[in-house]
Specification:
Elements (H helix, E strand, L loop, with lengths): L2 E8 L15 H5 L7 H17 L4 E4 L7 H6 L6 H11 L1 H7 L11 E4 L9 E5 L6 H4 L2 H11 L6 E4 L16 E4 L8 E6 L20 H10 L7 E5 L2 H4 L10 E4 L2 E5 L6 H14 L5 E5 L6 H7 L5 E4 L5 E6 H5 L1 H12 L4 E7 L2 H4 L9 E7 H6 L8 H14 L12 H17 L7 H4 L1
Parallel strand pairs: 1-2, 4-5, 7-8, 10-11, 13-14
Antiparallel strand pairs: 1-15, 3-4, 6-7, 9-10, 12-13
């Protein structure tokens, strides 16, 4: 049976703004308070989806969330009508209003962790929504994320959904941004690779000193248990604390994997040789040939990687079995990174092609191509069971483009978030979107 790796890209929401909310994310903090362009951001994301669809990749779309999150503001003590809640928050606690308006759900690599049916004990595709409890503005996402994923992957014969882990520091879970999977074929059993920044209970693991380590070992282990993964099909690795302190807030800012290939920076992990050996050994038991492509620090520094988002690229398998990297424009603008990429493809190794996309609006807020997509490996039967409304087609692309043009603003500043009209615009747009994507009622304003 044929199998596919489907990339479900996050559709940028109408309240996309530069609030500088993500401590430890250099781009997010350095562009704080600048004017954003939600319309341009959404269109840039859609353009990437369209190109990959036209190249023959199966491409899906994942809906954004309702923002501002008025219910979250009510839980913090603001009262009255929706407009009054927004007005009070703007006057008394503007940072809370900014957090409640974040469009960070666009980075669906953090939406959850997905294990394909070939790896799980019950033969179903398993989803666990990420609690994202390290940052308040992201911690409020998982209830809607669970409903949206449930509407996309609704057939319980093929799909199993788990609630987010307990929202405490010991089980900090950032989803697929710290998880990848290696396999010979997408429909065959593989090895799931969980990368963590710290251990909540085991003091043998060093922790970063400047920025928080968002993913815990205990969270990764809990997800593996929930998904029914075997010990032989899992490898855990600790992210290098020193690179976290240089702005590598997720593993997908310093490494990316797909198929049998891991593309990583020399400084990405602790105990790198052990990690690579374990991946090689366990993938060999699955019939695979693990290949590690190391980027030396002498050619590309960690700072280069963070500024260019070289590793926050999509590593995609081409029809001939070789790999293609989808990178942001910032890689071409960094002389050392671009020189490295030119040499990489010229060497005729496993990575043969680099394709560049302009994702400036997302990049300025700290998210590149890999942040914008959640990967789901599906066989033919499972793909048929997915809600067809969320699979990208040429007509759907046209419809979504028109929808963005109709509903999105082309400029948004912090002061605009206090406008109650923005909430009405967002709800009107999302109500129409659920009809376009055939999701049903997934947003609080549609349910309550």
């Amino acid at each position: 049976m044929k199998s596919f790796e489907v990339n479900f890209d996050g559709l940028v929401g109408p309240t996309h703004n530069y609030g500088g909310l993500s401590y430890g994310n250099v781009a997010s903090q350095s562009n704080s308070q600048q004017a954003s362009n939600p319309k341009e951001a959404a269109l840039q994301g859609l353009a990437k989806m369209k190109v990959l669809m036209e190249m023959g990749f199966v491409q899906g779309v994942l809906a954004p969330q309702e923002r501002p999150d008025v219910a979250a503001l009510r839980r913090l003590g603001f009262a009255g009508t929706d407009a009054q809640v927004i007005e009070q928050a703007a006057r008394q606690a503007m940072p809370l209003l900014v957090a409640s308006c974040s469009a960070s759900s666009m980075w669906v690599a953090n939406a959850g962790t997905v294990s394909p049916s070939a790896d799980t004990a019950d033969g179903r595709v398993h989803f666990t929504a990420a609690n994202l409890n390290c940052k308040y503005h992201r911690s409020i996402e998982h209830p809607t994320t669970s409903r949206v994923l449930g509407a996309m992957f609704a057939d319980s014969k093929h799909f199993a959904h788990h609630a987010a882990l307990p929202a405490v520091a010991q089980f900090g879970d950032e989803g697929a941004a710290n998880h990848t999977r290696f396999c010979r074929e997408y429909g065959e059993a593989g090895v799931e690779f969980f990368v963590f920044g710290r251990s909540a209970f085991d003091t043998r693991y060093p922790a970063p000193q400047k920025y928080p380590a968002r993913q815990t070992l205990e969270a990764s282990q809990a997800v593996a248990r929930l998904h029914g993964l075997s010990d032989d099909g899992v490898v855990y690795a600790q992210q290098n604390p020193a690179v976290i302190d240089q702005g590598v807030f997720h593993n997908d800012v310093i490494a990316v994997g797909n198929g049998e290939v891991l593309f990583y920076h020399e400084d990405a992990f602790l105990d790198t040789e052990r990690v690579l050996a374990e991946l090689r050994d366990k993938l060999a038991r699955c019939g695979g040939n693990f290949q590690a492509v190391c980027v030396p620090r002498a050619l590309v520094t960690v700072d280069d990687a963070v500024r260019s988002y070289l590793f926050n690229s999509q590593l995609l398998t081409r029809a001939d079995g070789t790999m293609m990297l989808i990178v942001p424009e910032e890689c071409r603008k960094n002389e050392r990174v671009w020189q490295y990429l030119q040499g990489l493809t010229a060497a005729a190794g496993v990575i043969r092609e680099v394709k560049v996309f302009d994702l400036k609006q997302s990049m300025q807020n700290g998210g590149g191509p890999a942040c914008l997509r959640l990967r789901v490996a599906l066989n033919e039967t499972e793909l048929v069971a997915v809600n067809p409304g969320v699979i990208m087609t040429a007509p759907l692309y046209d419809t979504l483009t028109q929808w963005v043009e109709k509903h999105y603003r082309d400029s948004l500043r912090e002061s605009d978030l206090a406008d109650p009209q923005l909430l009405l615009e967002c709800r009107t747009a999302l109500d129409e979107l659920t009809q376009i994507l055939k999701l049903g009622a997934v947003y609080p304003f549609q349910i309550n």
